[in-house]
Amino acid sequence: MLLLRRCHSLTRFGPLKTQRHQVAPAVVSCAVRLWSSSSEDRRSYQRVHGPSWRHGLAGLLAGTGAVLAYGLHHHKAEQQDTVRAKTIEKTSAFPIFSQEEVTSHRSLEDGVWVTYKGGVYDITEFVAMHPGGDKILLAAGGALEPFWALYAVHNQEHVLEMLSEYKVGELNADDLKKQKAVQTSDPYSSEPERHPALRINNLKPFNAEPPPEILSDSFITPSAIFFKRNHLPVPQVDTASYQLHVEGLPGGVLTLSLEELKTQFPKHTVTATLQCAGNRRSEMNEVKQVKGLNWGIAAISNATWSGARLRDVMLAAGYGPDVAQRAFHVQFEGLDKDVTGSTYGASIPLNKAVSEEGDVLLAYEMNGQDLPADHGYPVRVVVPGTVGARNVKWLGKIIVSAEESKSHWQQNDYKGFSPGTDWDTVDFKSAPAIQELPIQSAITSPANGAVVDRSLEEVTVKGYAWSGGGREVVRVDVSLDGGKTWQVAQLRSSEKGQAPEPSPPPGRAWAWKLWEVTAPLPAEAQELEIVCKAVDNSYNMQPDTVPPIWNLRGVLSNAWHRVTVVIREDGSEE
């Protein structure tokens, strides 16, 4: 678990932008000699302390730990770090490495290097002993701090003492600053810092998903690793002057400040899963190329949202029960704009917006804190059970209307088509905009291509399942042989160790279920094709293959999820 403490703040430090530095051969040679010496020292230490050294470390790290409360470092602390780095670079007996050199060591074959507070560490030998498994490799070639911050167990002196034995050098002062040249003309120059564990699908605008093996660790996804789906630059919003406008049909106009939204309306809290329409698009790309971000299985996350009910705000604006006679849609406009000044927009059906059971929120909190910038600060719409594209962030305007939003993302995107429709024949007006999403599940562990030792005798499979429209997942079936035989997974609707949440009212199952099953390894099998499929309370089931649901935008990808696992026989070096 050297992995997950890697941030002075979970949201602060992103992947380092490095400059090219040539490392002199003498320095590299020095590093090799130094590493050889330090390896010998470690072996000596292990001989003296025996098995207790490893067992003590395993006992120390084995707990999953609690997600830490985290905040940003102050500018003064950064300045002190820079001064310290310059001093170390001048006086350290260790060789100095550039970030580029560290980044080149990201695998067991090339060595696994990490940095921590300016030091460079070769932890290759430790990877096999890591109680958290190969998750530690997520930090390979980068800083430990953002990962370690996820688990409090790392904040102990013994862990730092163990880390110190793997030190091979220092990071040069320029790279330690982690400062990027800012182009003021770049509309993305003020983007928030992101957690480096996120797997980036697009940098500008920023779109990223967490590693699957982390995704299913927590029922409530930490905000820092909740998937990010931005269509435009993140706007800089002055909360002192922020106003939310409600308008549309004659007879209803309201303008609210953030403070008024918080104080004039009851605060409601909903736990809801958001999923991008393109989640698992990469599997459609394997069948035939589609247009869109190449999302894996983790463009989905679960959070607790708090704010005012949209229904209450509409009533305050004068849109009472009779509004359904005049309007059919509620449109949302964000404060994020493109170069032409056009804003992101979307709409939902009026009956969803005004229903007491719809639970639509004008949220200003996520997981008990103010919304992070990437997730819509200061206010966003949360439409439980509905595709992520309708959950408009940085909300600036609500429009009650007889028509859908005219936005590109409502009219000419996020729609499903026949596998036979191509870009020459597609007519976006012929298909409805996606609202509720279909039943979905995926395997988060083991990963595709993973190796399982025969000596373990069994394999544990984990994943998530969710269905749109408030339909509750009631079963997840898992197969180890490609779908020939099946077993039922255990479902979980709370954090591990906590009492399970009671079943939600019918039609209001907004949160995902995490699931797990442990099964014996088949005696004769050399390879496993692990498959999962979910069933909701309307008995909707996932299709077994991708080709029949393939579409040119790669949306609504919810076929059985499959991973292949190799069984390593005793003594095998595979």
From TrEMBL:
GO molecular function: heme binding; molybdenum ion binding; molybdopterin cofactor binding; sulfite oxidase activity
Pathway(s): Sulfur metabolism; Energy metabolism; sulfur metabolism
CDD domains with a match to the protein in the record: eukary_SO_Moco (cd02111)
Higher taxonomy: Eukaryota, Metazoa, Chordata, Craniata, Vertebrata
Gene Ontology CC, one term: mitochondrial intermembrane space
Ranges for domain Cytochrome b5 heme-binding: 94-172
EC code(s) of this entry: 1.8.3.1
Gene name as annotated: suox
SMART domains found in the cross-reference section: Cyt-b5
Cofactor(s) the protein needs: Mo-molybdopterin; heme b
PROSITE patterns: CYTOCHROME_B5_1, CYTOCHROME_B5_2
Enzymatic reactions: sulfite + O2 + H2O = sulfate + H2O2
Protein name per Swiss-Prot or TrEMBL: Sulfite oxidase
Annotated organism of origin: Cottoperca gobio
Compartments in which it is found: Mitochondrion intermembrane space
Keywords: Heme, Iron, Metal-binding, Mitochondrion, Molybdenum, Oxidoreductase
Record-linked InterPro entries: Cyt_B5-like_heme/steroid-bd, Cyt_B5-like_heme/steroid_sf, Cyt_B5_heme-BS, Ig_E-set, MoCF_OxRdtse_dimer, Mopterin_OxRdtase_euk, OxRdtase_Mopterin-bd_dom, OxRdtase_Mopterin-bd_sf
Swiss-Prot/TrEMBL GO biological process terms: nervous system development; sulfur compound metabolic process
Entry function: Catalyzes the oxidation of sulfite to sulfate, the terminal reaction in the oxidative degradation of sulfur-containing amino acids.
Predominant cellular place of this UniProt entry's protein: mitochondrion
